[in-house]
Amino acid sequence: MTNGAALVRGANTAVPAAEVQVRVSWNRGSGVDACALLLTADGKVRDDDDFVFYNQPEHSCGAVRLAEADPTSAVVTVDLQGLPADVDRVVVAGSLESGSFDSVPELCVSVVHGTRSVASYPVADIEPVSAMVFGELYRRGDGWKFRAVGQGWRSGLSGLATDFGISVEDESSVVSQAESLRHLQQVVTFAFADDVIEQHEVDEFEETVRRLGVSGPAVDEMRDRMNRGLQLARISEGLLPEVADSGLFLEADEKVHLDTPAVHIKTFENGSTKRTAGRVVASNRKLRFISTNGHELPWSKVVELRPEYATVIVMGTGKHGGAYEVADSEYAAAVLTGILKVSRRTATVTIPAQRDSRAIPHAIKVDVWRRDGGACVECSASEYLEFDHVIPWSRGGATSVANLQLLCRRCNLAKGARI
After folding, report:
1. Exposed site from 387, 391, 395, 409, fewest CB < 10 Å?
2. 160 φ, ψ to 5°?
3. What residue numbers bound the domain in which 376 lies?
4. Whether the model pTM is above 0.70
5. Element holding 263 (H helix, E strand)
6. Domain co-membership, 319 together with 367
7. Which of 366, 373, 411 is nearest to 390 (CA)?
């Protein structure tokens, strides 16, 4: 990566009018909570939605996103061309839950465009403040610039936010909100530990939301995840969708429940693989893979079916089957499982989803959660967490504290791509 402009407090430099990343980094153990504010020409937000922080990590326009890259940095991604026309500045700031910024070692702000470093600002001469504006992106004529700021607020995050027009009651309410969301994320992660969501777990989630008094995009995202989990559980128990027109010639009593683009992955004994693009069409009679060298697999010959990362594994008694890579492996696996159960007359719409031996005992979930700090062990994200078997369960991995870890969905899928 090429070196960009080296800035001091108050200095500025031009930046491309495109997507840029403002990275705030520090030495391990400091725990900086980064945020961003979208300001108009009068230096104020338009409303509270213009405050992007841990409870609202993406602006509604999609042009400003916040992510913790790792335990020692946070990244604010800004699509300058995608910002509303009345947004004149994007301020990048941060706060500390305890202590002050003068004790944060190696605090630095950098601006990156693609693989090119645009600017860097080692923050120096820091006062004992608990909230700080690190820098800002602002319009200048037809272009954009970045200014190194380094201005602190002794009144903390609430004082900083209030000065920019955000309605904040006090610092403790912001911290309480963050703690409530972390607890709610734990409730959701524990519910998904056995890959089955039941109605009582959705009810318990809603009761927890009511009791904590939290709301916002982060809560809505967790609610959507819970409701989708419940929908998939019901599908896997036999409440199957139907595809109106698959374009295939079917038998008189045949119904199609899944029709999706897929890549069939065949693994040979020497470890090599062959990938073939096509479609998976699953009916109540059989699973078809439609391609130049397609195949069919009657449900009576299926001996194993499971989701595995971005694929669905279907193993049969014959030479067909294997791994099918699809866009939504969770949904595809739920539909195929439901078809298989119905075809073998083991599913009724009145019984709850059956849990398998991957179910994680509560005590183990608690130990893993505490050990990993309620965050992804790879990227430190605290959203969309999943319990992951280090050695996959399908390959003999134990359901134990030593073989379990917390991963966010993105890192879990990335791990699957490496296996």
Report:
1. 395
2. -60, -50
3. 362-418
4. no
5. strand 256-267
6. no
7. 411
